[in-house]
Amino acid sequence: MKVDQEFDTSRAQAFGSAMLDTLNKSALSFMISIGHRVGLFDTMRQMDFATSMDIAERANLNERYVREWLGAMVTGGIVIYAPETHTYFLPPEHAAYLTREAGPDNMSVLLQYSAMMGKVEDKIVDCFKHGGGVPYGEHHRFYEVIDEDSSQSVLSSLESHILPLVPDLREKLEKGISMLDVGCGSGSILIRLASLFPKSRFTGIDFSTEAIANANAGTATYGVENVHFKLKSLSNFHHDAPEEKYDVISAFDAIHDQGQPLNVLKGIYRALKKDGVFLMQDISGTSHLEEDIAHPIAPFLYTLSCMHCMTVSLAQHGEGLGAMWGEEVTLEYLKRAGFSNIETHKLPHDIQNNWYVITK
Questions:
Q1: The total number of structural domains that make up the chain
Q2: Are residues 93 and 126 in the same domain?
Q3: What range defines the domain where residue 170 resides?
Q4: What is the DSSP secondary structure assignment for residue 242, as one 8-state letter?
Q5: Is residue 111 in some structural domain?
Q6: Above pLDDT 90, what percent of the chain?
Q7: Contact 321, 308 (CB under 8 A)
Q8: For residue 3, is pLDDT > 70?
Q9: Who's near 342: CB < 8 A, 6+ residues apart?
Q10: Among residues 57, 77, 103, which one ends one of the domains?
Q11: Scanning 23, 205, 267, 348, which has the fewest C-beta atoms within 10 Å of its C-beta?
């Protein structure tokens, strides 16, 4: 029904200005992604005011492309330009959010998602018209980007913040237990745990051939022998999961984009020992759109959901829950899977996720 409302000229002008700002910032996301991938931010962090030629030579890149990239960085307010000397400078305050040295605060890692999502735009448009989904294999560089993202949000705080969420977990891992990671991706988390706790045994499962290939390559690179990875569809995990086999099961941002998430959670319940612990990381939405407006990166998460998380589930003829299924629905699914004891935690450095510590 059309709302009969008087046209507000000032509101329209403000919205038009906001759209111009969106246009500029969406373009900058691509340039920031490129700057991260080719190491320009890391190079400039080590330099004072320098010419485009000096920067290009230091980064071993083509000067003409670097100069045009610098134009976007200067007009976007990221890099300072001195016209009298034709030199450029990356302020340390900006470098603190754009370089690999920044660790978990490096926003340039997340800005790679824009280019990644752009690769599937035509296919998503087709899904809008005809339904269906875009499978994992169509998402160019997904596992590379998600692995780097995970390195910042999970690996960087694995020992300091995440393991302490589960009482006595470090001590148990040191003595030797069995752990399963569901939706393990490229396996970087399990490989780190396997190297830290050689007496424990680790298994990772994922339905992506590319992910498992990357994981197996990682075990060879790091020389760990107490971890192995399996290619496995999880849609029927509620039936084919082993019974009470694992002391710990983890799922790092992996449940909501499954074809049949409830079946996966039921399988985890089945595979977990009676005194075991399920550690789950997932997006911290609220399950209510009107409340998600307050989430600091809600537009990004809904976009990523539409163009990746939801569509890869639908490509499996699945539910298409999406990344923003939210805490309320998450708790409902966990209870439907059989879990009764659920603790929800938030980590100070992680505005994107909830961390659930779950027992039978």
A1: 2
A2: no
A3: 116-359
A4: P
A5: no
A6: 89
A7: no
A8: no
A9: 331, 334, 335, 356, 357, 358
A10: 103
A11: 348
In terms of Cα–Cα distance, which of 180, 332, 318, 282 is closest to 241? 180
Judgement on whether residues 92 and 237 belong to the same structural domain of the protein: no
CA 19 to chain centroid, in Å, comes to 26
The phi, psi pair for 140, rounded to 5°, reads -60, 130
How would you class 108 by CB atoms within 10 Å of its CB: exposed for 0-12, middle for 13-18, buried for 19 or more? Answer: buried
Cα(80)–Cα(91) distance, integer angstroms = 7
302 within domain boundaries: yes
- Whether the CA torsion 14, 15, 20, 24 is positive or negative: it is positive
The neighbour count for residue 109, using CB atoms within 10 Å, is: 23
Query: Which residue among 75, 103, 131 closes a domain?
Result: 103
What are the tens digits of pLDDT across the range 28-82? 999 999 999 999 999 999 999 999 999 999 999 999 999 999 999 999 999 999 9
Predicted confidence at residue 194, as pLDDT, reads: 97
Q: pLDDT category, 140, cuts 50, 70, 90? A: confident
pTM above 0.90, yes or no: yes
**In the structure encoding, which two tokens stand for residue 97, read together?**
């959010």
- pLDDT class for 206, splitting at 50, 70, 90? very high
Is 88 in the same domain as 135? Answer: no
Question: In whole angstroms, what is the distance from residue 317 CA to residue 334 CA?
Answer: 21
Q: What is the CATH number of the domain that holds 128?
A: 3.40.50.150
Region of 86 on the Ramachandran plot (φ > 0 left; ψ -120 to 50 alpha; else beta): left
- Whose tokens are 């980064």? That residue is 59
Q: Average pLDDT in the 174-198 region?
A: 96
The answer to whether residue 110 sits within a structural domain is no
DSSP result, 208-225: -HHHHHHHHHHHHHHT--
pLDDT at 210: 87
Q: What pLDDT, on the 0 to 100 scale, is given for residue 142?
A: 85
pLDDT for 263 equals 97
Q: Is residue 1 pLDDT above 90, yes or no?
A: no
Per-residue exposure over 136-158, b if at least 16 CB sit within 10 Å of its own CB, e if not: bebbeebbebbbbbbbbbbbbbe
- CATH number at 91 reads 1.10.10.10
56 is a domain residue: yes
* Same domain, yes or no: 151 and 250: yes
